[in-house]
Structure formats: C-alpha cells, structure tokens
Design brief:
- This protein has 3 domains: about 5-65 and about 190-275, no CATH class; about 85-185, Hypothetical protein, domain 2 (Endonuclease III, domain 1, Orthogonal Bundle); about 290-345, Winged helix-like DNA-binding domain superfamily/Winged helix DNA-binding domain (Arc Repressor Mutant, subunit A), CATH 1.10.10.10.
- The protein has a 3-stranded antiparallel beta sheet with strand order 1-3-2.
- It has helices at about 15-20, 30-35, 45-65, 85-95, 100-115, 115-120, 125-130, 140-155, 165, 175-185, 195-205, 235-245, 255-270, 290-305, 310-315, 320-335; strands at about 305-310, 340, 345.
- The protein is mostly helical and about 350 residues long.
Length: about 350
C-alpha cells in the first residue's frame, strides 16, 4: 500500500522537531484516500500550535492514562515493538460499538478461550456466540470468526499488517483498519473514532456554533471511514481528519492515540458532548422493541435450545409485531446465524 510520507517507518528521523514540522505537511492517508479526506477549508496548524496541543494531551495522559488488557504493560510489547495483532484485532472490533467497561471482562474471557486465529477459526459458532454474548451487535462475532478462518487459510494464521487488506475483512472499515495497524505496529496512520472526534471538536472548533442532537450516546463508530451525514450545519469528519494528520505524533503514534482517546473519554464525562457539533452525529436509535433486540433474544434462546418454531417464538412474546419477528429471522438467516426448515429454526454450527 502506498501511503504519502512513506509512513515514516524504520528509517524515521530521530529529530522530534523535524517530525513536528513534517506533521503539518505530510499526509498519512492511503494515497487513494488523500483527496477524499484532506480538507481545503482547514488552515495548516502552526508548529507552535502543534507543540502546545501535543503538550496538553501528553500532560493529561501522563497523569490520567487508563489501563486496559489490550494496552501495554498488560499486553506485552514484543521484541520488535509490535503488540500481538490478534489481541489488537479482537479488542478493536469489540470496542467498535461497545463501552470499554463492558468490553474488558468479555475480552479477557475471549482471549482465554480463543488465544489465536486458529483456535477461533475452528470453534463451533454457538461457542463463539456464547463468549460474545453481552457485547451486542452479534454480527461482529460472525465477522470475527469469518476473518479468523480467512487469516488461517490465506495468510498462514498471521493478520496482514496492511490497512488496505484489513479493509477487505468483514466489518472492518477504514478507521478500524487504521487503529489495528497503529496499535499493532506503532506506525503513524490517520484514523478517527468517537473520543478522538470529541477532542478535536472541543480543542479546534469550540468557538463555532453547530446545532446538534440532544445529549445522548454517540451513534458514530470508527467502523465507518466517513460516517453518514446527519447534521448539514455540523463539522465534517474530513476537517477533523486533516487536523488529526497535522498534529499526529509520528514518533510514538500508538501512545499518542491512547492519549487522545483517554482525554476524549474524560471530556465525555465532564462537559456537554462536543460530538453533537459533528455533521455525522445522530441520536442512538431506540433499542427496546427493535429488530436488533429481537435478534439478540432469538440467538440467546437458540444457544439454550437446539431448535425452535416461529409459533414458539411468538408465544414467548419476543415481538409485539409479527412483522418485526419475521424481519429478525430473515436477517439472521441471510447473515448465516440460523437455518430454517419450514417454520423450525436452528443455530448454524
């Protein structure tokens, strides 16, 4: 993959001032995305402003950094400076649309049960779903196992460290591909997620007035490269990504992104949500009574029972509207979770 700035990889200069100067001019998007991501409306940040912003983030991180089992020192850095790509892949997919406090125990149990791509690829789907249960958006579990099977078959059990290839796996968008690459390799690359978006809107756009939704859980995940537009008057991710590129610490991008996300998490708990100013912001859709809730209930039942009929599902009161139940069953069949024999449904093995 061609990335402008040559990814500042093994031959990166050791002069940090040179790196800071480069951060305002070099582009760390894949070349095929540079024109899409780079904004013409954002003035390059001055080197002094970059230094001041980085100092603020690093100072906060030094006093308030969070510990997670997918971060050093709990996840051991290998002799070549890499963090185990499998562990990073699992944690990043789990974190796409689930809060960290819910992910931690699920991640730890998952790694104990499925320590690598091979063990995951060979596991029965019901077992995978049991260990995923509680994280929501169950299709991610299916995507993870499908990816594991492809990694074993096509890449010898090793996750390819190329964002363009990573994007070809199911459920991996440009931002998740970028985060996996950065956290595994500790090489500079541009991506965005909810906490990062919050930091840059707060620090660089706080003087602007952008109407947004009411203060609710963000419905923007790093699964999308550029999230769907929701607020015509808001701040576009393209403008934020340009600033992420300009201010990126190219010497230690892994910890730099940790620091950004920790500061963003802090902001989310202490001030009105800056992400409401995002052009891509939308209220979290109602879960109660939704097709998503019905899907989860069906899978939970089928994990306990070998089979069930549609009539039995209706008798359990899974849905007030039979059409919603039909929609949930059809989705689960299309995605490969369940199979139907007439009105009898079974979990695929």
């Amino acid at each position: 993959m061609c990335v402008l700035g040559a990814m500042i990889s093994k031959t990166a200069p050791k002069n940090k001032n040179l790196e800071l100067a480069r951060s305002a001019t070099s582009c760390l998007f894949p070349s095929y995305l540079c024109s899409q991501y780079r904004s013409d409306t954002i003035t390059p940040v001055k080197p002094t402003e970059i230094k001041s912003f980085q100092k603020k983030i690093w100072d906060f991180y030094g006093k308030n950094k969070r510990e997670f089992p997918w971060r050093p020192p709990l996840l051991k850095i290998q002799t070549n400076g890499i963090l185990d790509p499998y562990n990073i892949f699992i944690s990043e997919v789990m974190l796409q649309q689930t809060q960290t406090y819910r992910v931690v125990p699920k991640y730890e149990a998952w790694i104990r049960q499925f320590p690598d791509f091979k063990s995951l690829s060979q596991s029965p789907l019901p077992t995978v779903l049991r260990y995923w249960s509680g994280l929501g958006y169950n299709r991610r579990a299916l995507y993870i196992q499908t990816t594991a099977q492809r990694v074993v078959k096509e890449f010898g059990g090793k996750l390819p460290m190329d964002p363009e290839i990573l994007e070809t796996f199911p459920g991996i968008g440009k931002n998740t591909a970028g985060s996996i690459y950065v956290f595994s390799e500790n090489k500079p690359f541009v991506f965005i997620e909810t906490n990062i978006r919050r930091v840059f809107i707060h620090e660089f756009f706080s003087s602007q007035s952008h109407p947004g939704g009411s203060e609710t859980t963000d419905r923007i995940s790093k699964d999308d490269s550029i999230a769907p537009l929701q607020n015509d008057n808001g701040i576009h991710d393209r403008d934020i990504l340009t600033l992420v590129d300009q201010t990126l610490d190219r010497i230690n991008p892994r910890q730099w992104y940790y620091a950004l996300m920790d500061y963003g998490s802090y902001l989310g708990k202490t001030i009105p949500n800056p992400n409401r100013q995002s052009k891509h912001y939308a209220k979290q859709s109602r879960f109660e009574g939704s097709v998503r809730q019905i899907r989860g209930k069906i899978l939970k039942i089928l994990l306990e029972k070998k089979k069930i009929t549609k009539e039995e599902l209706l008798s359990l009161g899974l849905a007030d509207d039979e059409k919603l139940l039909d929609q949930a069953l059809l989705q689960l069949q299309k995605e490969g979770f369940i199979s139907a024999n007439g009105t009898v449904f079974r979990l695929n093995r």
